[in-house]
């Protein structure tokens, strides 16, 4: 049984717009089906490649969205120490791209490149993983704001619809790697807002617990020392957040890398 393509196979056709002449290739039905499947698979692969890029942009919560544009290839050579730290972060990226999952802690003084390297890590994983890997970067203060909104929504129905619960659901079901940027800035248990801070601790505990049970990775950056964090959070929260991160902790104590953390394209 022949189809329309069989009747045209081997014949020449003229493009009415350009006047160019083309010859339709002679293919067997099996070859035609194989070519069609290959084309479909190519389209599927392009779609799957775009998914992580779309996910990180739609689900990240940042003060500066140019953070998502940072990559290892654009980093300045600030110091030998920063170069060495970058090598360590690249190795973590290689692990994540290969499917390994564990928590990571970037700790040190402000302006030393923690956020930049966390973003470079995520950028590399999003674009170069063997399998589509969903990632997001969230600023700790942004989560704190979501939690405060959650606290205001006292009714159970409203809580389920709150932005924080939407975030938790998306993290649980879709996200593979989450960066929590600037942990500690959003909460201080020495303030009078003890209830809100307790809710924030509960939020971090839930995120860490989901990460552990669902084999996800959490990358934490913080300007605070471990001793300072111990004053801000209870031991259960920190223990859950830092589960496994003690073996994958990088301290940033070098010189400031300044406001221009990346060089522009030449």
Automatic annotation (TrEMBL):
InterPro entries, A to Z: AAA+_ATPase, DnaA_dom, P-loop_NTPase
GO MF term set: ATP binding
Domain AAA+ ATPase: from-to ranges: 100-247
Coiled-coil intervals: none
Superkingdom of this protein's organism: Bacteria
GO biological process: DNA replication
Pfam families membership: Bac_DnaA
SMART domains linked to this entry: AAA
PANTHER family in the cross-refs: ATP-BINDING PROTEIN RV3427C IN INSERTION SEQUENCE-RELATED, CHROMOSOMAL REPLICATION INITIATOR PROTEIN DNAA
Name of the protein described by the UniProt record: AAA+ ATPase domain-containing protein
């Amino acid at each position: 049984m022949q189809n329309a393509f069989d009747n045209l196979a081997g014949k020449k056709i003229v493009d009415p717009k350009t006047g160019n002449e083309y010859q339709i290739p002679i293919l067997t039905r099996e070859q035609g089906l194989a070519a069609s499947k290959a084309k479909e698979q190519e389209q599927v692969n392009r779609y799957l490649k775009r998914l992580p890029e779309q996910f990180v942009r739609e689900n990240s919560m940042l003060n500066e969205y140019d953070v998502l544009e940072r990559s290892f290839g654009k980093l300045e050579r600030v110091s030998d120490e920063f170069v060495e730290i970058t090598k360590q972060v690249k190795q973590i990226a290689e692990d994540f791209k290969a499917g390994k999952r564990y928590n990571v802690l970037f700790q040190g003084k402000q302006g030393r490149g923690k956020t930049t390297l966390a973003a470079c890590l995520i950028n590399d994983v999003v674009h170069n993983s063997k399998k589509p890997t969903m990632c997001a970067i969230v600023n700790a203060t942004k989560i704190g704001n979501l939690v405060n909104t959650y606290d205001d929504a006292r009714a159970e129905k409203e809580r389920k619809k709150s932005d924080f619960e939407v975030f938790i659901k998306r993290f649980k079901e879709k996200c593979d790697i989450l960066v929590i940027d600037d942990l500690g800035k959003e909460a201080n248990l020495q303030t009078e807002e003890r209830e809100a801070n307790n809710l924030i601790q509960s939020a971090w505990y839930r995120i860490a617990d989901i990460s552990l049970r669902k084999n996800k990775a959490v990358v934490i950056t913080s300007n605070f020392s471990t001793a300072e964090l111990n004053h801000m959070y209870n031991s259960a929260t920190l223990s859950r957040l830092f589960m496994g991160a003690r073996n994958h902790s990088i301290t940033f104590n070098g010189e400031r890398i300044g406001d221009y953390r990346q060089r522009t394209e030449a």
